[in-house]
Amino acid sequence: QVNSKQEGSPCKEKHVVLLSPVGKIEISGCETGLHEIKLPKMSVLPSGAESSAACEVCEGPEELPEPLQQCTAWLQAYFCQPAATGSLPVPAFHHPLLQRDSFTRQVLWTLLNDVKFGEAVSYKQLADLAGNSRAARAVGSAMRSNPIPIIIPCHRVIRSSGDTGNYGGGQLLKEWLLCHEKLQKEKLAR
């Protein structure tokens, strides 16, 4: 149960499972916004044929709150028609970490707004963008606590050396997402 400050009453949390090219993605949220996106842990990267697999809701209530509808539409576009994500609304977020004012929140919002599809940024560059050039380690900590991965694209944050670095969904998933974006961006550029 997540408590909402506005009403003082717990949200009516709903869950939906999206079957994506990288496995089952679990999404939770309420009428107010998204609570969390849980990524599958991958042990094998999906290959060509699988990566073009459809992206569809496989479990969830008939009536989804609007933020969950927006989230599933956004993720479906991300995997199947990435060019469309720019024209889709980003769902509202309703997670305590994204409600209170903090450096973590600042970093996550900066990442969401400034690091575009197919781009990558180092921890230090993101610290600079978020207003504290000496906070690269704090940026790493913010990435680890990101409750809305993919939409808030923490997979786009890499080490200054070019090494991909760690990822909540695992190394393979991070590499797959970066590769997916790079390939899609190249397709769009043609």
TrEMBL record:
Cofactor annotation: Zn(2+)
E.C. no: 2.1.1.63
Enzyme class: transferase
Subcellular localization, as worded in the UniProt entry: Nucleus
GO MF, one example: metal ion binding
One record GO biological process: DNA repair
Name of this protein: Methylated-DNA--protein-cysteine methyltransferase
Gene behind the chain: Mgmt
